Automatic annotation (TrEMBL):
It comes from the Bacteria. Pfam families: Pyr_redox_3. InterPro entries: FAD-bind_Monooxygenase_sf (IPR051209), FAD/NAD-bd_sf (IPR036188). This is NAD(P)/FAD-dependent oxidoreductase.
Amino acid sequence: MHTYAVLIIGSGFGGQCAAVNLLKAGIDDFRILERRDFFGGTWCQNTYPGAAVDVPSPLYSLSFAPYRWSQMFAEQAELRRYTEQLIEQFGLRDRVELGADVERVEWDEAEKRWLVHTRARGTFRTQFLINASGPLSQPVIPNFPGMDRFQGKTFHTNNWDHSYDYRGKRVAIVGSGASAAQVIPAIAPQVEHLHVFQRTPHWVLPRADRKFGRFQRWLLGLKPAYKLLRWLIYWQFETRVIAFKYSRPAIHLVQQHALRFLKRQVPDPLLRQKLTPDFTIGCKRVLVSSTYYPALSRANVTLHSREHGIASIDESGINTVDGEHLDVDLIVWSTGYDATDGVISYPVSGKNAVQLRDVWAEYPRAYLGTSLPDFPNLFIVTGPNTGIGHTSALFIIESQMNYILDCIRTVRAKGLRSIEVRRDAERTYTAMIHREMQRTVWKSGGCHSWYQSKSGHVIAMFPGFSFSYHLLTRALKPADHILS
């Protein structure tokens, strides 16, 4: 059995940020467990055509690791290079256990330690456990009759098969969210025909992308200039919360801007009607693209709305609800992730054998979206209600690290063994979150999105300014915790 002071599950930005913060705190007795056979997370896994970030790159980066980005919205290859630079810069490669797919974890009350059982790498024992597997790591594929009969090729955007040549083929993309909006413009010019199956249309805003010149990239290498640009972008984006939560007139103005953009980019009134959402902008994730609408307007692209959706699949293709049969060679599932009810994919057994799945049976919840009563020394990176719809998720991750490291340092400094959030503190925090959520567009915007759990509670998003969350996590509140 391998024993460490800290175990981190997941090697994406959350895991990397946790590792670097541990090193900075003088804690080097840790290990990163990664289920895949490579290190790096999202931007090493998601390699589908057109993959790119939808937050400006200087803000979508870790504050302690600036980078000379080539453009405002970095594409997947550059994000992968940034990830690899982080891994090398902080010597993380020697601290990862690849192929360590976690089967279950359980708290040993006598030893005050977590036992982490993996499928192929045995059992690990640790005092502190940080889950950084991420909310967008469990792909969802819907179940249609006849799927197993299809003789063509199928895969999810999360597992794009680059050995398959889609050029000149008849392709169907199921889904019209953020990944689809990037894949469709990338492959539409190269396929014979592209069928796009849309359950509900999304609001789309233009992508203000730009390439950085040599001098601008040189400036990005200067820490003061980098910090200034991050600060300017951060506060520009932070104002969006005013529309999402506090001002109906403001969100109406944003929606009118989106409608004008739709009308300008889609001249066909019938297609435009299919692409016009019937909910308030922001209720679902807003797509940021200047190429999505033109791609859907191409002669070799057909958009199928809900009433013409998939009824079943057979050997040669797709049967639609209205009785049409479509011959296709490839079906791409761009159908998202289990980002709410499936925040942690493996069983977790806490004190007195309390099961996380039972605690979360109604809906996932956690103090600061990070810790839970009955689960001492367990911290969840990007846990319930830590998502952010208007700015960089990495800002939230770094804020969480303030709290997590404060917890770990406090236990170690006092010579204690565990820290656990009090039940009343978690209940008070959760009540505040969902009280504040009532005022947001995610709750009242008239849609059902992946932001919501099966219970109808909005689980993915934090209902306010990201700096408000940062202030909540700046320092440990001892009165909210049990130290033993």
